[in-house]
Amino acid sequence: MAQRRLPAPRTLDPREAPSLRWGILGPGGIASAMVDALQQGTGQQVVAVGSRSADRAAAFAQRHGIAGSGDHDWLLAQDLDAIYVASPHSAHHEHALAAIDAGRAVLVEKAFTRNAGEAVEVLDAARDAGVAVAEAMWSRYLPGYDVVRQAVEQGVLGELRSVTADHGQLLWPDGPARLAEPALAGGALLDLGVYPIHLAAMLLPTVDAAHAVGALTPLGVDEQEVVTLTGPGGVLATCQASMSAKSPTAAVVAGTEARLELDGDFYRPTTIRLVAPDGEVLDAFEPQEREHGLRYEAVALARAVGAGALETPEVPWSETLRVMRILDDVRRQLGVVLPGE
């Protein structure tokens, strides 16, 4: 076969983005990882943290060397350029709207909201206020994902035929309590399944149909599911998620002339191999670093703010809405209805 090589990532240096003053809303585990990422290798400034519990915010601030802390209202009143919403899914809608109302750019942790209706309200508010908003689907901002995106667009794989990705983690029933709670928008899909579905959405220009099967917990959230997405010309994406079993968390993007193999965890900075149909490894991408990948999504928002844009090119609003509508369709097929929907 003709010589094939992987394209180089076009991702810009995170240290060269405009510097914003950040506030953290929701001092949980993902927020801790974000602060570490921003404090190591970017010019971003994390200056405040807010929580329902002022004591919890103060402990988080002390642990990370952040100057100010308080409750949610205190945070929104501070001199900030951007707010990272890291609260549970059930609160993303409320907290994003509050940050927009305060005139702050907003980076909203995935899944963006509980459903597409809430996402539309957030994005409409951002458009009306002229405020930049982005979904913190960190994988799509990584250099490796740009390699995958370009390889498909440039025909390195031939004609795209299939995408497969699994994301299984042993998080239930003995993991974080919020994952079991319908009131907190728990379940595997919004926490884990969103990763393979976002990968598929990035590569399929349209999704013509979605078919889902799964199993529910006694409280009615999804324990696990397999989702098949059909794209143009019959290309198929198989997306699997489980919160009750650990899987390899790998992905394969296959075309008529070659395939990409993304090692587990496929959604992190990881090895990506270009493989011929006979199994020969033609090329490989190795990330320069495997830590602090969360910073890429934050600096993408910073660049949007600096350019006067309302959305990022990596995850434009149309993509956030498309994925949210797919997630809504999957939950409808599984019979998962969250309180208040």
Automatic annotation (TrEMBL):
Organism ancestry: Bacteria, Bacillati, Actinomycetota, Actinomycetes, Micrococcales
Tree of life domain: Bacteria
Keyword Coiled coil carried by entry: no
Gene3D superfamilies per the UniProt record, alphabetical: Dihydrodipicolinate Reductase, domain 2, NAD(P)-binding Rossmann-like Domain
Domain GFO/IDH/MocA-like oxidoreductase positions: 147-261
Organism of this sequence: Agrococcus versicolor
Domain Gfo/Idh/MocA-like oxidoreductase N-terminal: 20-134
InterPro entries (UniProt xref): Gfo/Idh/MocA-like_OxRdtase_N, Gfo/Idh/MocA_domain, GFO_IDH_MocA-like_dom, NAD(P)-bd_dom_sf
The name this protein goes by in its record: Gfo/Idh/MocA family oxidoreductase
A Pfam family this chain is assigned to: GFO_IDH_MocA
